[in-house]
Amino acid sequence: MNPTLPAPAPEKDQLHPRNPHRGPYDFPQLSQRSPELAAFVQPNQYGNLSIDFANPAAVKALNRALLRQFYGIEHWDIPKGYLCPPIPGRADYVHYLADLLAESNGGALPPGEEITVLDVGVGANCIYPIIGRREYGWHFVGSDVDGVAVRAAQQIEAANPSLAGAIECRLQPARTRIFDGLIQAGEVFDLTMCNPPFHASAAAAAAGSQRKTSNLGTARGPGRPSTLAGKTTSLWCEGGEASFIRRMVQESGRRPRSCYWYTTLVSKKETLPGVYRALKTAGATAVRTIDMAQGQKKPARGLDFPHAGAASRVASGAVGEH
């Protein structure tokens, strides 16, 4: 490529059709709405306006600008060292979940507070509830094993009138549990969602974060980072995502009437065969795969699985690379 020419725009057809972030970031418009972002915007090597995605302050300013412009969030912050996620990919997950519900609703997207969603690992950023509330008006319960993250998410909810009463944050006291001890007796959700810990150890999480940071920067052009280094305890668990999702399947199998769709993302395609085996063991009566494309990744997979004996409530899940 001739470096004197502008870099081509990212592919617009990779993200969900309803995702408002399908095009490149409009930095002049975002900076006008959020002046703090302007200090980080500069031409990259291709002559396109961008930011240094390896700079946490720049990424946080970009997230604030996106949340303000697209989701009406005026007050958003996260504690130092906590995950600052790429919003476009997070939005994709929410829109695909809406499609799952629409399949059981005569094709109509189901909006409104009567739709209740459990976000497993809501994090300090509270991104999924923010997007789901704005786009579909859903009610959320956000769970996390990190008390600091729970308090930060609560502060975001309290600081923004549009989120008032729409998000309940709960601390999961048992780090090795997911639904056990969290879903209350008689409680029923339409959806659960989860972006599970990717790595199997703290060392692997730290090394992965370092690799991502070194690969980011203005040379990346107008594209988006797949993630940003955050508090490593949110990025790893013993056994990694494969172990985490197996536990999720097992626990969902014990409460098939507690949720209509149990869902989770999966980052590694080699995790999928083990997930399918776990679903079979848990008594899943159907499995569906959903392809998603997030950021610079190739199309990813997702699946849903109703459990036997679920009657009018169907326990299911979606997984995908991210």
TrEMBL record:
Q: Which Gene3D superfamilies match?
A: Vaccinia Virus protein VP39
Under the heading Pfam families, the entry gives: Methyltransf_10
From which source organism is this entry? Hymenobacter humi
Catalytic reactions of this protein: adenosine(1618) in 23S rRNA + S-adenosyl-L-methionine = N(6)-methyladenosine(1618) in 23S rRNA + S-adenosyl-L-homocysteine + H(+)
Q: What is the lineage of its organism?
A: Bacteria, Pseudomonadati, Bacteroidota, Cytophagia, Cytophagales
The protein's name is: Ribosomal RNA large subunit methyltransferase F
| NCBIfam families xref list | PRK11727.1
State if rRNA processing is listed as a keyword: yes
According to its UniProt record, this protein's enzyme class is transferase
